User: Fold these one by one.
Assistant:
Number 1:
Amino acid sequence: MKKYFFFLLTIWLPSLCYGQKTDSSTSFIADIVKDAGPNFDLKKALNDPNTLNKILKNDIANKEVYALIETLNFEFKTFENTTTNQSGLGFSYQYDKDFNTALRTYKKTQFGGSFSLQANGNVAFNSNINPANFLNNKASIHLFASSGGVKRRLSDADFKKLLELDNILIKLPKSEIDKSEAFKEKFDIMLSNVTNQYYTDFSLVGGLESNQLFTKKQWVLGSELAYDMKLWNTNSNSNIFNVFDYPFALLRMLSGTDKKFTVDGSTFPTILVGIDYVKPLADSIRERYGDSSSYIRVKAEVGFKTKLAKISDQVIYFVSDYRIYKELNPSASLVKAGYDLYNYFVASIQSSSGFFVSYSYGKLPFDAVNDKVYSLGWQYKF
Amino acid sequence: MSDWSNTNVAQSRTWGTLIGPPLKQIDEDFDHSGTIQMQNFAFWNNLESSDERNIQAIALARTINDVFNNDYRATFIAGSDAETTIAAMSGILNAAAKTVNDLADVVEQNYQFPV
């Protein structure tokens, strides 16, 4: 708790020194106290990430000196350790910056290169309750190819019609948009001008992976190949190749969300494969089994998200992710202990209002044991 | 950041692109769309790694750029080009708490749309 107040102090102190509290933030804090009435509990309010994020965004992030906080996508959040049932405050940060360097088009395919910096992680004020105890900081050089999508210019007539339809749709309430004749007409115009989109990215990556206390850390140098395919046109026959969406297309039809069995080609899973040279700097698991040497690992990830149903105003999604990490030529002791192979699968049913049911199984690098976790809850998106 | 209004061309084209086919990233009327966050977009998978999400964000930014250029006949304002604009849009798309209005802000700074 001391660390937490010290952290808040480091954020607020410069704010006080600048003495530029905004009218909106003054009003916001006054509103919190007023809404709580005579039962206002300062300690409870300061333990609520919702309050802290609003203060951060209203009181601090608008100032130039704190522009960095916004760039970092810094947010307070509540962490919960499902094993010990402990919960507490912490924060997450995410920084992604792409610097594009070149772009060439050859036979309708765009080729390009870019340089990227990425940093992300979750930090709990009590590190023992952090279930996502992983910080990832890296730089990468990308070469990519992009083809398909919307590459043809609309005709003059269709362009004029599109603007007319948008002017109608923009005034409609949500409940009437999908059913409107204007939406159907826009659907036809837009889909006549789109083809399947393929995006391939090859990258060279270098970075540091660690837990939040840096008691486990490792340098990683590797290469990744990612493939993202979007079959945008729902009327296209090529949608049948998205076999992953078959059970969900059936559920959408049975629930009345879709009038007929319609496979959504835009939800084709995103696939990433890679090979890394890993140099452990501190890894208690590997040290326990007498193997702290550098090693090579291969890895793969498949992410998938599709619509399950639309019930009233709520959209229900099925979301999943599978990751595998396999060390090449591991020592016999690591193989025997099961630390040469990391499998992790997580799937969730989520509503657009925040309700979710999830199941996860397996472990990621730095995890000591396989976890099988069922969760049911409400996720508030700050 | 500009106030969310259907008289703002960049905001109305951003909404028209995100709601309509082919992208269908949001499912909300214009008036309530400005505050929708990226983590509520159809493409956003909160279970996948940042590497995978980054790929999807860049691919989506490229498609949005194509829709603006080819469907809405947008042109870049002086000093802007496709690559810097796509990088700026993918930066927004990649940030969970950024909103449709934040995205429209980047659109307003980089494109001009015929009306």
Number 2:
Amino acid sequence: MNAMPALVADIVRSSFVDGPGNRYVVFFQGCTFNCLACHNPHTIGVHPTADTRQMSVSEIVADVAESAPFISGVTVSGGEATCQSTVVAELFAQLAGDPRTAHLTRLVDSNGDADRVVWESLAPGMHGAMIDLKAFDDDVHQLLTGRSNQRVLQSLRCLDELDRLAEIRLLVVPGLNDDAEMLARTARWIGELASTPRIRVIAFRHAGTRPIARRLREATSADIEAVVTVLVAQGIDRARIAASVS
Amino acid sequence: MDRVDQARADIGELIGDPALTYRQRVQALAMAAENLLEPPLVSSACMAAIDAGIVCDMGEGHAPYRPRYTLPDYQALVANGSEFLELPAPSTFDDATTLLLAAYANVPSITGYPVWFGDLDAVLAPFADELDDDDLRAALRRFWILLDRLFPDAFAHANLGPADSRLAREVLAIHRDARQVVPNLTLKVDPEATPDALVLEAMRTVAAVGQPHVVNHPMMVADLGERYGVVSCYNSLPVGGGSHTLVRLNLHAAAQAHTGPATTFVTTTLPVYAELAAELIESRVRFLVEAAGFFDHSWLVAEGLLSLDRFTAMFGVFGLAECVAHLRAGLDGRYGHDAAANELAHEIVAAVAALVAERPMAYCEATAGRALPHSQAGLDSDEGVTAGARIPVGEEPDVYQHLRVVAPNHRHFASGVSDIVRLDDTLADNPQAAVDITAGALAMGMRDVTFEVDGGEFVRVTGYLVRRADLAHLAASPDHGVRHSSTVLGAASFTNAALDTRTVQRVRSHERDARPRR
């Protein structure tokens, strides 16, 4: 049952920024993207380092149980948690089966670069996924992440069908992915989904990023408001949009 | 003659002190006059403990002529009106707030300002139905402004909950926007009865202005019954009564006075100083009731808004952290981080509670003839000693460990305890996080849950708040008064307790050490 341990970059027992409420967050090590704007670049590499650790699923569950009275739920993040989807599925199953933690919500924070089979395997134990959409146009996406966004868009559709799409995150890097016309197409595409997930507009910040990212401009509240205005103009309900600069 | 000369010098200084508003000056002059009298008689052992700073009367003054904390029954006031105030029972919202404001202005206290504004949602509920949302908001907003401008003292405290109501939600929204230090605000939370949606509304307000404070309603009802209120710095007391006095025991100083092995502190030294603190309480209570005759001539008593049988007295402790460190000198591991240190802290608190519960106290009928233990949140003059039973500022462990360590103390402090939990400022975008932490804290058996948001505009001092901008103003121009007397206190506390590593405002308080300089 516990054959495969998790390769973990970090554990944060109290986070206010990884989904609704106070959450326990497991940051898995290793990511399929290599984003210019990544604020946790040390979690990208897929191999163990001095800063990573192996943790068994039951070890994580026991630690979550300690925090359980104080939290809304658990978020798996990264790195890219779906790269270790077998472990995540097992973690969710054990959390759901343990009376100390069964009441907690279980969310995945993901870059969306996962196959349908992964989402189908996670869906039974997962309340929802929060997916980054770095850019709607593939050339812009490749510039920002080094990868195509085809699988991201497929993931969004798949999660929508599975009724597990909790949030779409639009990172705003001024001058790179905030073109109004592209954002309008993004909004229309989102509007065609069956579900109405929360849309979080996130300002790019330098904190935590690599030197190369310091050449990019940080997003201001005006940049964020401009993005929100485009989304709303395309028919997205303002109440669905969470926007913040900090 | 020396003393008279000293008093004249002190009074002359007060007359010309540029940092006092007119009302603050009058209050200080009254205190100076009172302190020319001899304090209520105590034994020489008690006097020595006071002089050594082990037992402290909180600078209430030498001749207690009004209770420290009063909680007039405002429900009865609005039901009956007042002959003294020459106002009938109100029939409209404006009549009700007018009657309340008139009453507040005539309630005595140590600070000169009322410490309790009542269960405002419940008291005003019968009058709110006549108003639509806009009119209610406008009327409440005017009332809220007057509370702050007429009673500029951060210890003046309003209560909400535990039931959800339109009024409670409107008050929370107005408080969030008004950015006032007054009133200090508490939400009574009953996990069974208070909806998460109301707690969430409260936590939105916490994210903006650091209030309200949360009190564990079922725990309070179990200890004091349904009719309790939270006043001043999180002091929970019977409604229709209050506390005659608050005396506090400096656990650190008591530990320093201890001789013999650390293990005998709670059985030898602690009982001695607890009794001396109780003696001081008793002498002050007897003076208030028997010599000053407060209960014989107050209009609040005559009209049934206060009664002697609803009163108690408060036995405060502070400096637990330093007490534990002193008793464990030479050992590794501090309170908050080490199991043995935590266990010793819990043992000391339990021992204090047991001593207070064993000691009959005059005129404390509301609490079975005993005083109530209280974790006292500090004075502006405290230096190098931690408030109440708190873990020292800057040494707090992570939030869950912090709450787990302090929670066992809470059941012993029926008249209130506050442990300040600092939250990240990202709370503003996710106030549900504080709802979650509150739920966990209450489930741990916390009686009082007090949050402060990192980098916020408001800084919590002992139990009250000050605005950073006012502190900065005071630091920049110390010779100009601020409207809230508690800001001045906050400035001293901020400096003395290194609160910037946590922190003050126009508002004054009783948590001021008013003893004459020695």
